[in-house]
Amino acid sequence: MVKMKISLPADKEEIRKLKTGDIVYLNGIFYTLRDEGHIRALKMYEKNKKLPVDFKGGAIFHCGPIMKKTKKGWRVIAAGPTTSARMNPLEPGFIEIFRPGFIIGKGGMNKKTRNAMKKHGCVYLSMTGGAAALGAKGIKKVHDVYWYELGMPEALWVLEAKIFGPLIVSMDSNGSSLYENVEKNVEKNLVKVRKRLGL
After folding, report:
1. How confident is the chain (199 residues) per 10-residue block, as mean pLDDT?
2. Residues annotated as catalytic (active site), given as ranges
3. What domains are there in the chain, each with its CATH number?
4. Which pairs with CB-CB distance under 8 Å and at least 24 residues apart come from 44-47?
């Protein structure tokens, strides 16, 4: 296990070095994006429309943040992870087209997404669910918001991270997945338990 701070956007070499179990803290600009945001970005790409941000080497946070409007702009009240499985149908294509370096969420993602991560150099970073206040503390500034008409949770928020974490590398760019490893261990233990019980 390695603990490291990463500045965004990161280059592919740095991303490829990360292994499952490593602890990561992020610094720099990153973006929130959920279902509707993914759909909007992919549709814009299909229509050859320019996106307002460049995701390459950056971090996509599966998050519907709670924001407060102030005289100076926006302030983050809470920023916890959304269950990433919701984005499974969209994420492989998104990774292939936009080449983000990091996906932040909770619960992991499916094999198709993992394959896209392996092919294009992307890792999945797990954030503890229910830690929305902690997530907000790691956000230094709200730089901008796009697609607000989709609603506050679905909008594309441009945030600046300052030691945002801890985040665990749960799926790396070599095809390893902590979730899959846990499932395999559970299956092995179930076999042992059944034998002991004579089932």
Report:
1. 90 94 97 98 98 98 95 93 96 98 96 96 90 84 97 97 95 89 50 59
2. 38
3. 3-197 (3.20.130.10)
4. 45/97, 45/98
